[in-house]
Amino acid sequence: MNNTKNPTALQSQRWILQALLDTMEEKNYDKITVSEICRTAELDRRTFYRNFNSKQEVLEQYIEQLCREYMAAFCKLDKPDKESATLLFFQFWKEHLQFIRNLQRCGLESYVFDQFERFTKSKRELLIDGPAENVSRQYLLAFRIGGFWNVMLTWAENGANISPEELTSILLQQ
User: Angle, to 10 degrees, between the axis of helix 7-24 and the axis of helix 34-41?
Assistant: First the structure.
């Protein structure tokens, strides 16, 4: 991706990203072409390739943007604990449910999971008590990261029919 400060290039990048997201509403990711993204964005292919190397790079940029937004929201928590971190997680993803559903439909959930896993491992004290250097704690951390992620995917598949607060309450009872 072109890391420019040029306002015109930044606007083109936003249009390209939005064109990809809009097209993903209707088509599987693997069927989307750069030409189609450019048509939707009303930009030419040269502009696309001036800013990105591939459609995958566009998607990765959006996921990085989501992770930055999540981190910013997480850092605003006064005193993060299991409850506030869990609630924030589901509140955040509720705002991006359509994107998650599109990723599920296209079989691309792992794109976001990899970033989520990296973040969660850096905040492991919210999922396990004590250091993760202990072998049993490493497995417990992996179990909880995967569990969190799969609960979110199940919640999205079911239409997020319960509130983030209710889901947090359910998970903290376990």
Answer: 110
